Amino acid sequence: MEIIQQRANAIKLLGRTLDAARAAGKFSIAAISGGSKSNAIAREAQGDPHGDALVLAKIKAIVDRLSRDLSDEFSSVGSRATLVAASPARCTGSLTAHPRRGSSTS
After folding, report:
1. How crowded is residue 24: how many other Cβ atoms within 10 Å of its Cβ?
2. Does the first or last residue of the chain, that is N or C, have fewer Cβ atoms within 10 Å of its Cβ?
3. β 79-85/45-50 pair status
4. Tens-of-pLDDT digits for all 106 residues of the chain?
5. Distance CA 68, CA 65 (A)
6. Cα-flanking dihedrals φ and ψ of residue 49, to 5°?
7. Of 64, 79, 71, whose CA–CA distance to 20 is shortest?
8. Strand order in 45-50's β-sheet?
């Protein structure tokens, strides 16, 4: 990725997401991963929050809201940022940030 293109950094997006998720209540972070290349902007990052079902449901709602906000934020530079939250019913929790190149067409 070219830095001049102002592409989103997935690790920073995940950090923003986890910071916003603090409003959901008490949870812990079991794992964070992403940015496998030392000379490139991270395209994907994952976090694994653990907490009770109510907190994870609130985190999912926060992720859904942030995904819309980030899509708007990065559409002006021709990038698309996507946040995905796994269903709290399916697992303890998983957040994934995927900044993508290209236009933000739906």
Report:
1. 19
2. C
3. unpaired
4. 455 666 678 888 889 999 999 999 999 998 888 888 877 788 888 888 889 989 999 998 998 898 888 877 777 666 666 677 766 555 444 555 555 544 443 3
5. 5
6. -80, 145
7. 64
8. 28-34, 45-50, 95-101, 79-85
**What does the pLDDT read at residue 22?**
93
User: Looking at residue 26, what is its pLDDT?
Assistant: 94
Over the chain, what HEC string results? CCHHHCCCCHHHHHHHHHHHHHHHCCCEEEEEEECCCCCCCCCCEEEEEECCHHHHHHHHHHHHHHHHHHHHHHHCCCEEEEEEECCCCCCCCCEEEEEEECCCCC
The token pair that represents 70 in the structure block = 């980030």
Residue 101 β-bridge partners: 79
Q: Rounded to an integer, what distance in angstroms lies between the CA atom of residue 71 and that of residue 42?
A: 17
Pairing of the two strands 28-34 and 45-50:
antiparallel
What are the φ and ψ backbone dihedral angles of 91, each rounded to 5 degrees?
-155, 175
